[in-house]
């Protein structure tokens, strides 16, 4: 068995659950957030810094790594863990999302996607077999099936096509997947259409995977539709298997989804916002480039034990961003990654006490302070 | 006394000497190399990483910090050590070099330099009094006098003017300098003209400073003229005071100057070359972007104990630079800074054994491998 998953605690008043996900490279306490290292690097952070932030598991991307440096290079380096010096669990996204959102001149058929590499223009093909080959060579703890992620908005017919194709590709991926030290997760599509989500969930579960992801959200549909899709889909997935919400999100969305029984998350928000001078704090976001921080001697977040907050002031961060020193993006990425890891640890703790709703609501009152975040 | 300097060992066959420089923030074993953190940040490295690299002392720049964030902000933060979280010794360059090389529309007179800030176009003035005020507020362990650094080539008359002005400014800086917990170093100019170097050295020593710098080198004059200037000037400086060679340089130049009795160095080379995918190794420089490294599983430097070499392969660095991940510049900066620190530690050790010439020559044979470096 490449994976064991055990629910250790069910919250009292929400669907939130705490669990323990045992993977070849280690055990992940869930719910957990995975920082994104698409190209085998969580941007700006060396692996020991990622660990110091309290991160348990990271995400990498098969599409990006297939283009550069190529799965053969990673395999020859002893696999992704060794290549990126991250000895904890890793999940690789299949590249389905990227091949539809980034690649040019694509031709989609049931057998896969023919596209031109944005790197060198070379013709490439990504189908279920190749997708499993690539992820097998990368050697992450969890591989994802190849999926078709439709944009938003899309017609119900388009969403239906994506659902059928994702089911066909999922079954094929399961067939081609041959590493017994790697779990394989299926992906539920269906855009904003309940009946498609229902069909996609039911038939994905029929194929049978180690875990299940909700895909096709966070593509522009907005908070209300996203939350509906998550709340509708999560209960359709087996309670004893991990549930992974792909590409979500900002803290309010993450906590909302934890309350629906989601166990795993990934999003570029902590690192991308950090590079862009925006810090997450319990009182909401700070834009450190603002002149109001020029002489602010407080740390980004009082009481935070990350490298950034232990040693540096908001004034120093303001300075670094204003003079474009790369240490600014580095330090705020460290802080934001640590912020997310701590938020998840507190969520697990609250679930353990049967008080997740109180934790979530208290967090949101303080975090949003009456403001919405986009 | 803001500073004590003790020669602990004189080499047997060269002018190299090992010493101990006691400064308010700590003791520096010399000869030592200071990585450059012009804007209060050694590019890409948090302070604990700089320390881990074996660095004893860093350089910051009064010109850059006067423009942004302003010396008042740094002073209000408790000074430069606290602002940048570096608890070891710091030297601030006066900004003389920058005001001549970077600022626009400058008018130079004996009282100082009137220039337009490249940040906001505001008119600024840098003279001896303001220069000492700024460096006093920054609060480094060592301040530098305001100097005029002529470009190369320049006429003997221009070099003479720069020498006279630097002497006048130096005397004024000494007068205005009023922190008794901060050392003040004079600067010798004179371009490539021996008689000007001689006069500048003699009269700078007559003014009397805690230490003496050789300025106006590494401005395009080339290796031969640079080495001549250093070899000619160093013996003119008091043997019992630290000698600092400004802005130098690549490893061969640094070791050559150590052999002439230089104690302190600074240069952007380790960080700038690191950002540019170039690693220093005992066998010379590696350009990690080259495709030859794509599958090279060796560390950048075998046996190096820096973060980069402990955890990562040349193949990973090659990948990071090719996909423009910022971890590439970070890791190679770490390695290069550690490389320089180790080179200096080995130089000190060799001097201690009276065998600096052998060390230097052996280093160069291995490093250059018959090739010149630019």
Account of the protein in words:
The structure is a homodimer of 374-residue chains. By secondary structure, chain A is of the alpha/beta class. In chain A, the strands form four sheets. Chain A has an eight-stranded parallel β-sheet. Chain A has a three-stranded antiparallel β-sheet with strand order 1-2-3. The radius of gyration of chain A is 20 Å and the shape is globular. Chains A and B meet through helix 13 and helix 14 of A and helix 13 and helix 14 of B.
How would the blueprint of this fold be written?
The structure is a homodimer of 374-residue chains.
Chain A: E1 4-10, E2 17-23, E3 26-30, E4 32-35, H1 47-52, E5 58-61, H2 62-67, H3 71-76, H4 80-84, E6 90-93, H5 96-101, E7 104-109, E8 112-116, E9 123-126, H6 128-138, E10 142-144, H7 156-176, E11 183-188, H8 194-207, E12 211-214, H9 223-233, E13 243-245, H10 251-258, E14 264-267, H11 269-275, E15 278-281, E16 284-287, H12 307-311, H13 314-322, H14 327-352, H15 356-368
Parallel strand pairs in A: 4-14, 5-6, 6-10, 10-11, 11-12, 12-13, 13-14
Antiparallel strand pairs in A: 1-2, 2-3, 7-8, 8-9, 15-16
Helix pairs in contact in A: 6-7, 7-8, 11-14, 13-14, 14-15
